[in-house]
Design goal:
Shape of chain A: globular
Helix content of chain A: 55-70%
Number of domains of chain B: 2
Number of helices of chain B: 3
Oligomer: heterodimer
Helix content of chain B: 25-40%
Number of strands of chain B: 7
CATH superfamily of the largest domain in chain B: Nucleic acid-binding proteins
Largest sheet of chain A: 6 strands, antiparallel
Number of domains of chain A: 4
Structural class of chain B: alpha+beta
Radius of gyration of chain B: 22 Å
Number of helices of chain A: 21
C-alpha cells in the first residue's frame, strides 16, 4: 500500500513538474501575476510529493519489504538499520530518486527564499527547474522505477554491496548531489535571464549565493568521497583520477571559476557573457557526470549496473539541455552589451586569469576522461588514461594559478599596480623561500620539485591572509585600532582568506604524501615484525569475530613508535555472508597530521599473513584543507551582502538607534 | 593602453595558456596512455613493444595461483591463449580463480610482470574490457544486462 502511494506521489510530482514547466513561463510572457505565482506553489508541491515518494521507499527499506525489486536487490533483513536507510540511495534507482528529490528541494528553496527576485525572473527560473525535473522524473518512471514489484515476494534480500555498508554512504552521495544539483539553480538563472533578456549586476548578486551553496556542498562531497575511498578500499590512495571522480571534479573546477567570475559581474558588471556561459557549462558538466556515472559507459567503482537503455535516455536529456541552452546562448549573447572596462593588470584581470586556468584545467581533465571512449568508438582499441596523464597536464596548469592566488586579492579593481601588491607580499615570499631552503636541506635525495611544492604551499597559505593583514594595518597601528578594523571587515573577506588558505593546506598535504610516503609489504608469521618509517609492527596472531551480517578475521598488531610508545592496531579481513564477498578493513592511526595505514592480504594455510603498511605524512591535511574551504564558503555565504533584505533591516535598526539617541 | 591593445594582450595571454594546455595534452596522450590487450593480442599479434606498459585482461586460470610470501604467480587466460603473471603485493579482495581480472605492468621475457591488479568491485560486476574480450572469444557467460 505504502509503495503504491509512493509510486503515485512520484507520478504526481512528475505531473506538477509539467505544470511548473509551462504555466509560470506563460505567466512571465503574458505578464500575468497569478500564473507566475503558480510557479511557487507548483514547486513546493513537487518537492512535497517527491519527498513522499522518497519517504515511502525509505519505509520499504526500513521494513525490509522484499516485494519491491529494488529493496530485494539491495537490502537484507539482517543489515544494520543505518545501512537500511542509507541503502535507499546505494543503488541506481534510489540514487536517481535522491537526485530529483534534491532538485525539487532546490526549486522549492528558490520559491521560498526568492521573494527579492523580480517576479518575472523568478517565474522563468522555476520553469527551467521544472523542465529539468520533468526530464528526470520521466527517466525514473520509464527506465529506473524504484517501485517496481516482484511477485511472489522473495523471502530474503540480496544485501547491499559491502563496500557501501559504511557511514560514508550516509554523507557522500547526499553532499555530492546537493552540489551537483545545486548548480541547476545557477543554470536556471542563466537560461531565465537569457529568456527575459535582462542580464546585469543584480542578476549576479542573486545567483552568487546559490553558486556558493552548491560549490560548498560539492567541495564537501568530493572531499568526503576521497576520504571514504581512502579508508574503505584498503588501497591507501586518496585520489585515483577515476572517471567518476573526474566527473565530479570537472563541475567543481568550472563551478569555482563561476564563483570568481560572478564576483566580477556583481562588482563591475563585466564578464557578463562569460559568466552566463560558465553557469551553463557548470550544470552541463554535472549532467555529463550523471551520465558517465549512471550509464555505465565507463568502468568505475560507481557503476551499479550497465543498462544501455538508461545511458541513451540520459544522453538524450544531456543533449537536449546542453544543446538547447547553448543555442539560446548563441542567439542572446551577441545582444549583451559589454560591461565595465579594465586593464589587464587589475582585480578583474586576475580573476580572468583564474578563470582561464580553471576552465583550461577542467577541459584537460575532460579530455583525459572521455579520450578512451572516443578512441574505442573510432578505432576499437581499448586504452586507459591514468594518473600519469592527469599529473602531467593538470599539475603544470595549477602552478601559475597557485602562484597568483595571494596576489589577486591585493590588486585593486579596474586598474592596478603590480609592484605595491608584491611589496606587501615581501615577507610572505621570504617565508616561502625559507621553507623551500629548509626542506631542501633536510630532504636530500628527494626531487627539488617537492621542496618547491612545499614552498608554494606556504606562499598560498600565508599569502591568503595578506589582504586582511594590510587592511587592518597590523604592526603599523595600535592593537585596539587593529581589533576594531578586524571586526569591521566584511565576512566575505574572511571567506576568501579561509578558502585560499584551505587550498594551500591541501597542496601541502598532497605534495608531502606524494613524495615522502613510505610503504612496506611483507608476509609475516605470528611473532614476526615489519617496519615502516621507524614504526615497528609486530604481528601477534588473529582473532575471528562475528558481526551482524559478516564474519571477520582481525589481525592483532602491536605497533612501537620511533619514540617508544606502544599501541595496538587491528586491521581485518571481512566476509559478508549474503554475497560471500570479502572486504578489507584497513586500520588507521592518526599521529599529528600524519597517518599510519595498515591493510591486510590473505591468511595463508600456515597462519602467515601478508601485511601492507604505509606511512602517510601530513595526509590528513588534504581533507582538513577541504574543511577550511567549506568553512570559507559558509562564512562568505553569511556575508550580509549576499543575504538580500538584510541590508534593509540593518538600516532600519541603525535608524532606530539614531532615533533612540536623539530622544 | 588603448582598448584594442588591452584586448590583444588579454587574447594573447589566454591563447598562450590554451596553447600550453594543448601541447601538454598532446604530449601526455602520446606517452601516458595505457593500452588494453588480451593474451591472444600479445601472443599471436605481438601488439605490445617490449617494456611498454599495458593492461592485460582475461580470466584467472583455475588452479594457477601460486603464492610464495608476498609474491604471487598466476595465469591470465582468454581461453585461447594464456600468459603467466607475476605480482608483488596484496591482491584485491575479489581476486579469485575463474574470475575476470585486469593486470597493469609490462612484459618481461615470456611472462607479464604486474604492479597493479584490478578485480571486479562486486560479484555482479566484470571489468568492461574483460567482458568485451570474452564476448569476442564467445565464452561470455554473464547476463547481458546485469541487474
Amino acid at each position: 500500500m505504502i509503495n503504491e502511494l509512493g509510486h503515485f506521489a512520484l507520478v504526481l510530482a512528475f505531473a506538477l513538474s509539467l505544470v511548473l514547466s509551462v504555466v509560470p513561463l506563460a505567466g512571465a510572457k503574458l505578464g500575468n501575476q497569478k500564473l507566475m505565482a503558480i510557479g511557487s506553489s507548483a514547486s513546493t508541491g513537487m518537492f512535497v510529493f517527491t519527498l513522499l515518494a522518497f519517504a515511502s521507499l525509505t519505509s520499504a527499506y526500513v521494513t525490509s519489504d522484499f516485494s519491491l525489486e529494488n529493496v530485494w536487490a539491495n537490502s537484507h533483513s539482517a543489515k544494520p538499520m543505518l545501512y537500511k536507510v542509507t541503502g535507499v540511495w546505494g543503488n541506481h534507482e534510489g540514487s536517481m530518486l535522491l537526485w530529483v528529490l534534491i532538485l525539487a528541494f532546490f526549486s522549492a528553496l528558490v520559491a521560498w527564499f526568492g521573494s527579492n527576485i523580480p517576479a518575472r525572473l523568478k517565474a522563468n527560473v522555476l520553469a527551467v527547474q521544472g523542465w529539468i525535473a520533468a526530464a528526470f522524473f520521466l527517466f525514473i518512471l520509464l527506465t529506473s522505477n524504484p517501485f517496481a514489484r516482484l511477485s511472489p515476494a522473495p523471502f530474503e534480500g540480496n544485501d547491499l554491496n559491502p563496500v557501501l555498508q559504511d557511514i560514508g554512504l550516509a554523507i557522500h552521495p547526499p553532499m555530492l548531489y546537493l552540489g551537483y544539483v545545486g548548480f541547476s539553480v545557477t543554470f536556471s538563472f542563466a537560461v531565465a535571464a537569457m529568456i527575459s533578456g535582462r542580464i546585469d549586476a543584480a542578476w549576479a548578486r542573486w545567483v552568487r549565493p546559490w553558486a556558493l551553496t552548491a560549490w560548498l556542498f560539492l567541495t564537501a562531497g568530493i572531499a568526503m568521497g576521497s576520504y571514504w575511498a581512502y579508508y574503505e578500499l584498503g588501497w591507501g590512495g586518496w585520489w585515483f583520477w577515476d572517471p567518476v571522480e573526474n566527473a565530479s571534479f570537472i563541475p567543481w573546477l568550472v563551478g569555482t571559476a563561476l564563483l570568481h567570475s560572478a564576483l566580477v559581474m556583481e562588482k563591475r558588471e563585466a564578464l557578463k557573457i562569460w559568466t552566463i556561459l560558465l553557469a551553463i557549462i557548470t550544470f552541463s558538466m554535472s549532467l555529463l557526470g550523471t551520465f558517465l556515472v549512471r550509464s555505465g559507459v565507463l568502468t568505475s567503482v560507481h557503476a551499479f549496473a550497465n543498462d544501455p537503455e538508461r545511458g541513451v535516455f540520459i544522453l538524450m536529456i544531456l543533449m537536449l539541455f546542453i544543446g538547447g541552452s547553448l543555442t539560446l546562448f548563441a542567439i542572446r549573447a551577441p545582444l549583451l552589451k559589454a560591461g565595465g572596462l579594465f586593464q589587464p593588470i587589475s582585480r578583474e584581470g586576475a580573476l580572468v586569469f583564474n578563470n582561464v586556468f580553471l576552465t583550461t584545467a577542467a577541459a584537460t581533465v575532460l579530455v583525459g576522461t572521455l579520450y578512451p571512449l572516443v578512441v574505442e568508438a573510432l578505432s576499437g582499441a581499448k586504452i586507459s588514461v591514468g594518473a600519469p596523464f592527469f599529473n602531467i597536464t593538470f599539475g603544470p596548469l595549477m602552478i601559475p594559478l597557485l602562484m597568483l592566488v595571494p596576489i589577486g586579492p591585493l590588486l585593486s579593481w579596474k586598474r592596478a599596480d603590480l609592484y605595491p601588491a608584491l611589496q606587501r607580499l615581501f615577507w610572505v615570499a621570504g617565508l616561502a623561500l625559507l621553507t623551500f631552503i629548509i626542506t631542501l636541506a633536510f630532504t636530500s635525495g628527494e626531487p627539488v620539485l617537492a621542496s618547491l611544492g612545499i614552498g608554494l604551499a606556504v606562499w598560498v597559505m600565508v599569502g591568503a591572509f595578506a589582504e586582511i593583514w594590510t587592511r587592518t594595518g597590523i604592526g603599523k597601528t595600535s592593537a585596539s585600532n587593529v581589533f576594531s578594523r578586524l571586526s569591521g571587515l566584511p565576512r566575505s573577506m574572511w571567506g576568501t582568506a579561509l578558502g585560499h588558505f584551505g587550498l594551500g593546506v591541501i597542496l601541502l598535504g598532497v605534495v608531502t604524501v606524494s613524495v615522502f610516503e613510505q610503504e612496506s609489504v611483507a608476509e609475516v608469521a605470528p611473532g614476526e615484525k615489519i617496519a615502516v618509517a621507524g614504526y615497528e609492527i609486530a604481528f601477534q596472531g588473529v582473532t575471528p569475530v562475528t558481526g551482524p551480517n559478516y564474519t571477520e578475521i582481525v589481525a592483532n598488531l602491536m605497533v612501537t613508535s620511533p619514540s617508544g610508545n606502544l599501541f595496538p592496531m587491528k586491521p581485518a579481513k571481512r566476509v559478508y555472508q549474503v554475497r560471500g564477498m570479502p572486504t578489507t578493513e584497513a586500520a588507521i592511526r592518526t599521529i599529528g597530521f600524519s597517518q599510519l595505514y595498515i591493510s591486510l592480504g590473505d591468511l595463508s594455510a600456515s597462519g602467515k599473513l601478508v601485511i601492507r603498511a604505509w606511512w602517510k605524512p601530513l595526509v590528513t591535511l588534504i581533507w582538513i584543507g577541504a574543511i577550511f574551504m567549506v568553512a570559507g564558503g559558509a562564512i562568505s555565504l553569511s556575508d550580509r551582502r549576499l543575504r538580500v533584505g538584510v541590508a534593509k533591516r540593518a538600516r532600519r535598526i541603525a535608524a532606530g538607534k539614531q532615533a533612540d539617541a536623539l530622544s | 593602453m588603448t582598448r584594442k591593445q588591452k584586448r590583444l594582450t588579454m587574447i594573447g595571454a589566454i591563447g598562450a595558456v590554451l596553447m600550453a594546455a594543448v601541447l601538454l595534452v598532446m604530449f601526455a596522450l602520446r606517452d601516458e596512455i595505457v593500452f588494453f590487450y588480451s593474451p591472444t593480442d600479445i601472443l599471436t599479434e605481438n601488439k605490445a613493444r617490449s617494456g611498454e606498459r599495458f593492461r592485460l585482461g582475461g580470466l584467472v586460470k583455475e588452479g594457477s595461483i601460486e603464492k610464495s610470501g608476498e609474491t604471487v604467480h598466476f595465469v591470465i587466460t582468454d581461453t585461447e591463449h594464456e600468459l603467466p603473471v607475476t605480482y608483488v603485493g596484496i591482491l584485491p579482495d575479489l581476486f579469485r580463480e575463474g574470475q575476470g581480472v585486469i593486470a597493469e605492468g609490462s612484459l618481461s621475457g615470456t611472462s607479464f610482470s604486474a604492479d597493479t591488479v584490478l578485480a571486479k568491485h562486486d560479484e555482479n560486476y566484470m571489468p568492461k574490457e574483460v567482458a568485451d574480450t570474452l564476448k569476442e572469444k564467445g565464452v561470455w557467460q554473464g547476463e547481458e544486462a546485469v541487474q
